[in-house]
């Protein structure tokens, strides 16, 4: 079941490393999808009113809803160290848990480094865990925009959970990374049909379903931005299965194949289980990618999905990548996708936004994938853009979503063609 690789990929391509002004969302944004995924968890952001407004606006939570995140506002006296912030935090947590007995996991999320908020949230989490256990487990991680970028919030959250997971000697597969429930169900169904089980998920939907980890655990990532979680699981003795990420038909097949080889799934069973969904995926991609054939694409660094998505667009949708920028390049995670990415594009890590804008304007690509802060100015200059954030909030993994993934990129080009036609008429 070995995967056929191109003769020359991009794993050895020199990486352009840039350090300068960057345009990214902060790691707090991950709460928006994590609080929906973990049904008995609550995310308490310890920060300013600005952070509260960001979450409220980004999540679109109505004022009469009962969300599973909130903000403990730090006032000026707290920041100046004139109040006992620990005592105030303890009171707020006690009040929250008394009102919401359904909470089993409480995350204290720092919106700024501890030097700024004058509060050691790691120690606070330990203290509150001892007070409220065994009913509630309290964790801590940083979502600070100073310390984390957009998707690193999820990585920090999952990495904070790993040290507290129970120990296990069982040989089990752990699938790591948050996905919408419907996509997770598709993943589990494919693995079950291959005879692979039991399969554990991180994050789990409920605290009672959290996985155990040990030396016999093998784990497969579904998100390429989980570098700290990967390191934390490795420290617990678990072993990573390197594979391309499950975007598109090729990526999904390669991801499943790596797991199937690890668990000794017969070749004929693998082909039998994957044949029909592979055919559906290929048909859907062909339908949605007509506008993408022969077009060029330029990725600004944003979500760390850039390298697997560039592989999908070039290999499965007929596009040419001009530059593939990513906030951080973790070769241990995206190396298999780099092996498949045809040579040619600039591979850049980090960002100096003005220099990268110069390269993008000089290249004049057919499609530019970037953050919200760059999209409108580039559109005003006549460039066609795709919001990178939509690729995180939309179901895009595995076979059944392959056509939708291609459609996310073809839609802006289709819209521009329609507008041009209307203008000409």
From TrEMBL:
Cofactor: [4Fe-4S] cluster
EC number: 1.3.7.7
Keyword Zinc belongs to the record: no
Residue numbers binding [4Fe-4S] cluster: 26, 51, 112
Reactions performed catalytically: chlorophyllide a + oxidized 2[4Fe-4S]-[ferredoxin] + 2 ADP + 2 phosphate = protochlorophyllide a + reduced 2[4Fe-4S]-[ferredoxin] + 2 ATP + 2 H2O
SUPFAM superfamilies: Helical backbone' metal receptor (SSF53807)
Domain of life: Bacteria
Alphabetical keyword list: 4Fe-4S, ATP-binding, Bacteriochlorophyll biosynthesis, Chlorophyll biosynthesis, Iron, Iron-sulfur, Metal-binding, Nucleotide-binding, Oxidoreductase, Photosynthesis
Job of this protein: Component of the dark-operative protochlorophyllide reductase (DPOR) that uses Mg-ATP and reduced ferredoxin to reduce ring D of protochlorophyllide (Pchlide) to form chlorophyllide a (Chlide). This reaction is light-independent. The NB-protein (BchN-BchB) is the catalytic component of the complex.
Assembly and oligomerization: Protochlorophyllide reductase is composed of three subunits; BchL, BchN and BchB. Forms a heterotetramer of two BchB and two BchN subunits.
NCBIfam families membership: DPOR_bchN, PRK02842.1
PANTHER family: LIGHT-INDEPENDENT PROTOCHLOROPHYLLIDE REDUCTASE SUBUNIT N
Record-given protein name: Light-independent protochlorophyllide reductase subunit N
Organism of origin: Paragemmobacter amnigenus
